[in-house]
Amino acid sequence: FKGERPVHFQEMGTVESKVYERDLLPPHVVIAGPTIVEEPACTTIVCPEQQVMVDRFGNLVITEVSK
């Protein structure tokens, strides 16, 4: 966990979102949105009704969370 940053979502307005460094996320970790995953080549935004998991190969897998 690196900090927090405001992110604007059209449906919800501005929401404080946790920021993570991708290289520091271990395999199988699951993080609920809203969140930001940063790396040198890109930034991944995970919306409030989503979650992101790091699979065993290091890929980010984003899925919808049931309401």
From TrEMBL:
InterPro entries, A to Z? ACX-like_C
Acetophenone carboxylase-like C-terminal domain location: 2-57
Do you know which Pfam families this protein is assigned to?
A: Hydant_A_C
Listed name of the protein: Acetophenone carboxylase-like C-terminal domain-containing protein
Please give the organism.
marine sediment metagenome
